[in-house]
């Protein structure tokens, strides 16, 4: 078995992520009616600067069918016999369906996973699968474990304001106006393929206390890797990192940029905190 991993840019890829056997299809961000492939931004800072200045009304676009065809063709030409593709929640993006449809045209053994999540938890799912491959698990065993573990992922989002959520249709005009007038803060949760309102509060104190309590619970249950994600406000992300480390100094806390598709829909200044339980 020669196994390839196919992901897209809803999975955050850092410089320390081994790119061996890893293939990436890019989503696009549309700012001021001009499309930019996520993979073409020279740095996350450049993207966040554009989002801050011109993000009002920004949109995203999934990869084209041709993007998937060309990537699967490349994987086949390089001699891979098996492929595991990991994509974001099918209820939020058509990327999974497009990848699945394309995969059916190729003779390789391919399994396409609807991760139900994105960003850091999605990256952790891929890294877990690659670890299993290095430990000589079979293709079927890896697929089964990933399909099981994906349901343990959680990703919390704390938007700085609701402007972009209103623009993208996630929040109604009336709720946006009421929240703005009363300074209501929201805590959103992406779990099992859906984004739900987890908590709302006047100010951040109640939300911060709620999250810290829950993070302590999941650390006690064995979660060792936690991602703190930011849409341009890295300093605030480091504050959250220190809060988490006061709970347990042995936990690995990674500060990373929030992926463009999530940043566009939740807006500049959003903080995300996520994990997946693989123990």
TrEMBL record:
UniProt key word Ribosomal protein: no
A Pfam family recorded for this sequence: DegV
Keyword Metal-binding in annotation: no
MF annotations from Gene Ontology: lipid binding
Keywords tagged on the record: Lipid-binding
Taxonomic superkingdom: Bacteria
Biological role: May bind long-chain fatty acids, such as palmitate, and may play a role in lipid transport or fatty acid metabolism.
NCBIfam families in UniProt: DegV
Protein known as: DegV family protein
